[in-house]
Design goal:
With 230 residues, this protein is mostly helical. Helix content is 60%, strand content 9%. The strands form three sheets. A three-stranded antiparallel β-sheet has the order 1-2-3, with no helix packed on it. The protein has a two-stranded antiparallel ribbon with strand order 4-5.
């Protein structure tokens, strides 16, 4: 009985529907006249699997990798530097908060003399611990960027997007000099806000670039490869 084989030799027409030419044990395949070992035909053992989706780098891929890795190296340096230049502004802000509370409650007992130093020490320790955690996260992001991990791309995109959303709010706060903390008597020097804004501008630009690359090409600017036809 003659049978009609598909162009790839993986199916035959039985008169009603296409059937697999693969044997039940997955070791041989019928070529229309004889059973041929699957290995000699280059077929995978078992049923015919769908070809995995693969991507190839483009001209955007390596620059994106280096940009993300460089950004997180810079972020790690920024996180590690915080304890060295934030102690003074923190102590000043705590004093402002205590003085504000004393004005609101003039009959209350004054706080202990070493309260400011104690609170400042706790906050400094918190900044140091946060900086070490940030350093570890930055190291993971740098490794993920150099290795082109897809999940790292999406995580970085979300984090940069959140920073981009907060940029206009910080800009208005810096220009007007108003903030929720200032209303409660606790405020930081405005130059710290401007440092954060200047630091956020390249982050916003990187976010836009990563978003465009994702839409036009894919994660890390890599395009899908069409599956090879055997």
């Amino acid at each position: 009985m003659s049978m009609q084989l598909s162009p790839d030799g993986m199916y035959y027409w039985d008169g009603q529907q296409w059937q697999s030419t693969l044997s039940h044990d997955g070791r041989t395949r019928w070529n229309g006249s004889a059973w041929i070992p699957v290995q000699s035909q280059g077929y995978a053992f078992g049923a015919s699997p769908r070809a995995p989706v693969t991507r190839e780098p483009t001209s955007w891929t390596r620059p994106l990798q280096y940009a993300v890795a460089g950004w997180y190296v810079l972020s790690a340096i920024y996180a590690l530097s915080l304890p060295f230049w934030m102690s003074g502004p923190m102590s000043q802000a705590i004093n402002q908060s205590i003085q504000h509370q004393e004005k609101l409650n003039p009959t209350a007992s004054p706080p202990p003399a070493d309260l400011t130093a104690m609170v400042t020490s706790f906050m400094t320790v918190g900044i140091v611990v946060g900086g070490l955690i940030g350093l570890a996260l930055c190291a993971v992001a740098v490794i993920g960027a150099l290795k082109r991990w897809t999940w790292i791309y999406y995580v970085v995109l979300v984090l940069l997007g959140l920073g981009t959303i907060s940029l206009p709010v910080n800009l208005v706060s810096a220009v007007t000099g108003s903030s929720v903390a200032a209303a409660s008597g606790f405020s930081m020097p405005v130059w710290i806000t401007w440092i954060g804004i200047l630091f956020s501008i390249p982050a916003a630009a990187l976010f836009v670039w990563m978003l465009v690359a994702l839409v036009q090409r894919g994660p890390w600017g890599m395009k899908k490869l069409a599956p090879a036809v055997s």
